[in-house]
Write a structure and sequence with these properties.
By secondary structure, the chain is of the alpha/beta class. The chain contains 14 helices and 19 strands. The strands form 3 sheets. Strands 1, 2, 3, 4, 5, 16, 17, 18 and 19 form a 9-stranded mixed β-sheet that branches. The structure holds (4S)-2,6-dioxohexahydropyrimidine-4-carboxylic acid and zinc ion (ZN) (2 copies).
Length: about 475
């Protein structure tokens, strides 16, 4: 068992065997006795999972097999690898905030085997070359899937629509102007028409640029008290309404990013009742915190859209519970320490999310009865996979062995200094949470493991944490 079997992986493999997960990361593996949660087959039962060569071989009770590697998953959730439709990896252009490598490490540590990277880099991901660049770079540095989202307009300037067909052919899984909205309704409509034609989803960041003015936090009493300009709910709501109507007009598949208001939820409900192809995501910070969490000039609480009121949070949770809101995405938005040390007014919008998402979902939603564990797997893996038409997000036999193992009972304090992400900008540092990722397995390879006293991330050429 100490002698790694040669699988022809040469030097890469040899370098990795030092790491505690190194030697077993490519072996035939049996996950014993976990609570298997697979929405595709509506499975919520104690079962074993067997995989080899990156493929799930079998999911059943009491599998007997002489697999070289056995993981005891007693008391753990065994889910299809988590999928985050919305992250910012900052490469190229802002490598001082995050790189594809560090972002992928953060994803692995957070239980994610697939992430979709937003195009607001420098240059923006608005060409076939840039899409290929992200894909190639990701393949070079990580075993998790980093899938590019392409810009809707050249340079995200809001004028000239990019070539959706070519971008999709080359691996873009969605188009988005995230960071802002396409403000010109004629351009937005034309983009949706073209997206419908090539069947690529449009990921919409809904924010009316004129209405937002100089706002930095939710509009209302609290903003007045803090002395900051506010961002009204209407800033989001008017674009959500417009984009749903444009989706109806064009037949586009519309996915609404980081919904934060109660009226967004109501409009998504109406859209679904009409049978439109509209989906929506909620971030952990928007279902966990309200504007009342902002008690000082701390830019770790500054994000776009902003933290709202309790009535909004309640509606978002209700929407996640009922399925009106389809999925949980992080909007992982790392920024450099010096940028977030600035005042609330001057700091950039955004917080990191990949390494706190599982714990916040368990603490705020599963433990409080908002989501069942099976629904958690649905909102964090199965449904995101459907939205980008991926065959992942399930533990069905024959599918890629993307698996996340979580200890739902492990209670601990979030420590941002332990983040694998370069971005330590989180409002959750010091928060006591429940739910810890124990293994992240991507394509049959263990990319992350945690045991008390030994935490290990394995990407491709840096074997040790
Ligand atoms: O808070 C945010 N940060 N919202 C966005 O829409 C963009 C993101 C970023 O890129 O930092
Ligand atoms: Zn956004
Ligand atoms: Zn974003």
């Amino acid at each position: 068992r100490d002698q790694p079997r040669s699988r022809g992986l040469g030097d890469v493999y040899k370098r990795q065997i030092d790491c505690c997960v190194g030697k077993e990361r490519i072996m035939k593996t049996l996950i014993k006795g976990g609570r298997v949660l697979d929405p595709a087959s509506k499975t919520d039962a104690v079962k074993d999972v067997l995989f080899e060569d990156g493929v799930i071989l079998k999911v059943a009770e009491n599998i007997t097999d002489d697999a070289e590697n056995v993981i005891d998953a007693d008391g753990m959730f065994v889910m299809p690898g988590l999928i985050d439709l919305h992250v910012h990896f900052r490469e190229p252009g802002f490598e001082h905030k995050e790189t594809i490598r560090t972002g992928a490490r953060a994803a692995a540590r957070g239980g994610f085997t697939t992430v979709c990277a937003m195009p607001n880099t420098k240059p923006a991901i608005d060409s076939v070359e840039m899409v290929r660049y992200i894909i190639d770079k990701a393949k070079e540095v990580t075993d998790i899937n980093v899938l590019p989202i392409a810009a809707i307009t050249a340079g995200q300037d809001g004028e000239y629509i990019t070539d959706f067909e070519k971008l999709k052919e080359n691996g873009a899984v969605a188009v988005s102007e995230d960071g802002k909205s396409v403000m010109n309704a004629r351009v937005a409509r034309q983009a949706m028409r073209l997206a419908a034609e090539v069947d690529i989803p449009v990921f919409a960041h809904c924010e009316d640029k004129n209405l937002v003015a100089r706002g930095v936090m939710n509009a209302g009493e609290k903003a007045k008290e803090m002395g900051f300009y506010g961002i009204m709910n209407a800033v989001e709501d008017v674009i959500v309404a417009r984009d749903i109507l444009l989706a109806k007009n064009t037949g586009a598949r519309l996915h609404l990013c980081h919904c934060s208001t109660k009226d967004s939820v109501r409009m998504v409900e109406l859209a679904k009742k009409e049978g439109l192809q509209v989906t929506a995501e909620v971030t952990p910070h928007h279902f966990t915190l309200t504007e009342d969490a902002i008690t000082s000039d701390d830019a770790n609480f500054k994000m776009n859209p902003p933290l709202r009121k309790q009535e909004d949070v309640d509606e978002l949770k209700e929407g996640l519970s009922s399925g009106i809101m389809d999925c949980i995405s992080t909007d992982h938005a790392p920024h450099h320490k010096t940028e977030k040390e600035r005042s609330f007014v001057d700091a950039p919008f955004g917080i990191t999310g990949l390494e706190t998402s599982v714990a916040l979902t368990i603490t705020e939603l599963v433990d409080k009865g908002v989501l069942t564990p099976l629904q958690m797997a649905e909102r964090m893996s199965y449904t995101p996979a459907q939205i980008i038409k991926s065959d992942r997000g399930t533990l069905l036999e024959g599918r890629p062995a993307d698996i996340t193992i979580i200890d739902p009972a492990d209670e601990y304090v979030i420590d941002s200094s332990m983040f694998a992400s370069m971005g330590k900008n989180t409002p959750f540092n010091g928060k006591t949470v429940k739910g810890r990722v124990r293994y992240t397995i991507a394509g049959g390879k263990t990319v992350y493991s945690y045991r008390p006293g030994c935490e290990c991330i394995v990407d491709k050429d840096v074997p040790k944490l």
